[in-house]
Amino acid sequence: MKKHASIILSALFICCGLLQGCGKIIVPSDVMDEKTMVSFLKDAYTLEGFYAIETSFHYDSLYPQMRASYDSLLLTYDLSREDFERSMDWYSHHPEAFEKVHQSVIAEIDTAIAHL
Q1: pTM higher than 0.85 for the full model?
Q2: Which of 33, 37, 83, 92 sits CB 3.0–4.6 Å from 79 for a disulfide?
Q3: Torsion angle defined by CA atoms of residues 39, 52, 80 and 76, in that order, rounded to the nearest 10 degrees
C-alpha cells in the first residue's frame, strides 16, 4: 500500500510540475507584448515623474501639456488610446504578467538612474 501511495504522490508532483511549466501566458496579438509594454510604461512613468514635480505648483496650466505629452508618447509607439486601454485591461487581468512587466520597468529605470 505504501508503494502505491508513493507512486501516486510522485505522479501527482510530476503532473503539477508539468502544469506549471505549461502555464506560460500568451499575450494576444491586439495587446502590447511584454517588451513594448515595459518600454512604454518606462517612458510614461518618466513623463509622470516630470509632471509630478512641475504640477505641484501649476497643475491647471500644465494639464494641456501633459495631455499632449501622453498623446505624443502614444504616437511614438504607434498606439491609439484604445490600444493602450486594451493592453492595460489585459495586463490588469493577468497580474503575474503585469508584475513581470513592472519588475522590468523598475529595473530599467534603476539602470537609467545609475548611469546619470
Answers
A1: no
A2: 83
A3: -50
